[in-house]
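Dear colleague,

Thank you for sharing your sequence with our group. We've completed the structure prediction you requested, and as agreed, I am returning the results in plain text so they can be pasted directly into your records. Please verify that the sequence below matches your submission; if there's any discrepancy, let me know and we will rerun it promptly.
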Amino acid sequence: MSDSIGIRATAVLREPPIGSPRRMSRRRVLGTLAAMAAGVPLFGCSPAGRGPADTTDLLYLGSWGRSEIRAAAFDPAAGALTSIGVVAQASSSWSTMHPSLPILYVAGGGAGGSVTAYRIDPPTGRLTRIGATMTGGVGAVGTVSYISVDPATLLVANYADHLVAAVPIDPDGGIGAPASIMRFAGSGPNKRQDSSHPHCVVTDPSGKYVLVADFGADRVFVQRFDPATRTLSEGPSPYVPAPGSGPRRLVWHPDGRTVYLLNELAADIETLTWDSGTGSLTRRHTVSTETAAFAGTRSAAELALGTDARYLYASDRGENTLVVYSIDPHTSLPTLVQRVPCGGILPWSFTIHRGGRWMFVANQGSGAVTLFGIDPGSGRLAAAGRSLAVPAADGVVCLAR
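Please find the predicted structure tokens below.
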């Protein structure tokens, strides 16, 4: 291990805000996720007079480097996409939904990095800003690269400012100032790994640990987490992939013991075993996202499990492809099933529809969100021949209405 690579974690703690929400039970959270996977709308109240057109879902579409959020309607029965247009003027580098309220959280750039909360009007898709917070960065340009919800806390990865912040969620979905901040240090051999760059942050199934995929430090840091106080603190030793891997995404298997790590620079997926007793990760298996003959710049981008966890999906910007792997039901290891063109250039990210039949691919280089069908039996992808023009498309968030 290089002496230049390591962790310097400084906890910045603040008192929880008065009236902060109680943490929802993990059973309730898992129930909510199961309902989403089964296609049960989270917002079941229907205003009088709504017609068939109102049975569509809402999509919120981010644009890298542009101060705008767009919306679209999606009809899952017909696979039809209809643009609604720009619904907010805001920087958007990552977005996510509240687990049970019509609230959209949008990560932005600018000095220090920020997160803004918007209330959604489901019938129209309109957004109303209800609050914002800075994430604790001090740089001239801060980029929030990821937000996860756990579930009364936003866990925010600030790529540019080398930190992860725990942001309280109020009962109405609003957000407060960070309750705790962890700062990291480290570097890797690639010229893009000059310093720590947290790219993804997720909790473990117990909710007692936070895992941070740090692209710049070439580490998956393991931090302790107290959900009652939203306190992050230094944890066990980090997981160390091969030098120059560039950890980018972490995805949990439902078994709670397996986590998949997508490495951007190595363009591969590692299957790791999680030991909840020691807070440690151990590598079991590695599979590439690229063909053996590829000689260009490697750049894996996104990773997600299908709604039934039988298939694992990745996007690869080096070859402009989407890659499908089957998951062995006994070992949880992935095996290549399909590699297909992404329908554009630079598949920055993708989102799988809650029903499991569709995938929305944000092709940043070609400025479009492209629709793919998912075969439920084989997990294979097929281009649906439909897309929406979205300048510098970088993400898609879906809301059932």
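Summary note from our side: The chain has a mean pLDDT of 87.

Kind regards,
the structure core
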